[in-house]
DNA-binding response OmpR family regulator (Paenibacillus methanolicus), 228 residues
Amino acid sequence: MHPDKRIRILLADDEPNILQFLELGLLGEGYDVHTAQDGEEALQAAREFKPHVAILDVMMPEKSGFEVCKSLKESGDKIAVIMLTAKDEVTDRIRGLTLGADDYMAKPFSFDELLARIQARLRNQFPDLLGAVTYGPFRIDDRKNEIMYMERVLELSPTEYDLLKFLVINHGAVLGKTTILDKVWSYDFGGENNIVEVYIRSLREKLGDKEHRLIRTLRGVGYRVDLP
C-alpha cells in the first residue's frame, strides 16, 4: 500500500483532550485521521472522509455514538466501528453490538490496547490494507514484520523494527528521545534514555548510514529521518 492510500480512521469524542491524545497517537502510527466532536459532525465526516475504522464515544451531543453507529452500518459502506464509553456496563455493550458495532472499549483504556483492537478489525474486515507500505527507499511490511531498504531486507530485532518503522513513518519530523521512548518502548519504560542512542547507532550501521545523512541527529532536540 502506498502512503497516499493510508488507512483512514474517524475519531468522534466530545472530550478535546482525549480527541487530541488519540489523534496524535494514531497519526504517529501512520494512520490518516479525521476528528469530530459531536454525532452530526461525525456522520458528515464519514460521508466525505470514507473511513475504514470509526472510533465513536457513546455519549456525544447532537447524536449519540449509538445513533452514529446505526447510521454508519445502514449506509452500506464497509466500515469497522469501535465504541468507547466512560462506563463498562453490559447493557451498553449489548446495545452497541446489537446496532452493529464491531468492538467495544471502556474508558480509561491503554493506547496500545486500542491499536491492537484497530489492527484486529483491519485484519478481519480489510485484510488487503495491511500490505507493504513504501516510503522512499523503505518498504515496510507488517504482515512479515519486515523492512526493506534499497531492495534489501534488513536484519532487525523486534525493537529495531519498531524504532525504524516509527522514524520512517514520521520522516521529516524531529522526534525527541522522550517521544521515541514513549512510542517505541512504551510509557512505563524505566531505563535510561541513552538506550535510544544505542539503537540509533545500530540502525545506522545496518543502513550503511555512516555519515548520518539518513537518520540525522539534531543536537539537544532529537532525530529526524530525511528521505531522498
Summary: The helical segments are 16-28, 39-49, 65-74, 90-98, 111-125, 158-169, 177-185, 195-207.
